[in-house]
Amino acid sequence: MVTVEVLGGGGEVGRMAILVKGSRNSVLLDYGVNFDDEGKPVFPLHVRPRDLSAVVLSHAHLDHCGALPGLYISASPPLYATPLTAELAEIMFKDTVKLSGYYLPYEEEEVRNTLRRVNPVNFNDTVNLNGDSLTFLNAGHVPGSMMTLLNIDGFRILFTGDFNLSQSNLLNGADVYSIPRDIDLVVMEATYAGGTHPPREKLEEEFINAVKTTLDEGGSVLIPSFTIGRTQELLLTLIKHNITDVPIYIDGLARIANRIISKYPQFLRDPNLYAKAITYSSEVMGNYYRKNALRDQAVIITPAGMLKGGAAVYYLKRLGGDRRNAVILPSYQAPDSPGYELLTKGVVKVDNEEIRVNAKVYWFDFSAHSGLEELINFISYFKDETNILIVHSSPRNALRLSEHLDERNIHVTLTTGEAIEI
């Protein structure tokens, strides 16, 4: 008998943490954080680090990795991740310590301990684990992201992490066809089960038209974006469509992420396009360079993706008042975020300061997750006997997905703390 415990990500998007316990091994899959309305981190349920045979990190977003260093205080279980994920996680850990250190159960020493225990793996590698095994596959979500196929006590379990079946300019889609169809359990995210994403070609066309129109009218374009994955996808999209007549600036942690990703071309769909995009972009190294970036027309890509602070707010204050400019939000905006306020009210309140925006505001669904139609196709790939455990989704979206496949063995986690046995 194998037990699968949902330590985080049950009935919610974020703080992903799945514990798989067999007779010989206990494997922890991700250990992330969410943040409450006051910006304080919310952690998964506790697990004893000394009980873990292995920890697997699917990718370097904080909602999958942000709690990991807290495990490396009293024990040192091996940590499996791609080398790219490990390097990206390091900058995310250090930034979190800098911004939220008072509320964290770890400091920089625990971050160092975590990174020392990384066992780097690549796609299609298999690791033997005391009679069981772990196999790692491309997840198509962000550079270096992976799915994990566990063979434990004779049962085969797939953990998707965050995954995307569609090809993008940055990445190939998830490697579904390397997964056996007759596995016992799929533990899968369903973040975007609430709807189907628009066709990528149409999305790119509308995005590029918004950029070109703004530039033709004499304005600049501000794109608040997530550091890992989204920034790089947008940069490649701009270069692919020859938006090179004005400078493209990259600010904040995104510029460091760009450099790290450049070291690992094997994880990219088109390394030549990526190298070209890096050549055409310019890094903003500090406040002096930020002022310089605002002197003439430009496209500026910068964290934070939901306008919760970061350099994006600096630029918004200076560009938002001019009707010639545009603010493009290329990702999901949580209902409690400043980005959502901007979309719905045209006003942003950050640090008790109200910013009224006259610039044009656009939203585009550049998602790195599979949408409803893709999730249905993904589940249909597996045999009817395969059990499906839906995590990392709102209950409403997860139930909507299950209704489309009511003949399948689907279990929707409504709250963190649930467990199933196979």
Write structural notes for this entry.
The protein has 422 residues and is an alpha/beta fold. Helices cover 29% and strands 23% of the residues. The chain folds into 2 domains: 3-195 and 368-421, Metallo-beta-lactamase, Chain A; 200-363, Rossmann fold (3-Layer(aba) Sandwich). It has helices spanning 62-65, 83-100, 108-116, 200-216, 230-240, 253-262, 271-280, 287-293, 311-319, 338-345, 372-381, 395-404; strands spanning 3-8, 17-21, 26-29, 34-35, 41-42, 54-56, 79-81, 118-120, 126-129, 132-138, 146-152, 155-159, 185-189, 221-224, 248-250, 281-283, 299-302, 326-329, 347-350, 353-356, 360-363, 387-391, 409-412, 419-421. The strands form 5 sheets. Strands 8-7-6-3-2-1-24 form a 7-stranded mixed β-sheet. Helix 2 packs antiparallel against helix 6 and helix 5 crosses helix 7. Residues 14-226 form the Metallo-beta-lactamase domain. Residues 231-342 form the Beta-Casp domain.
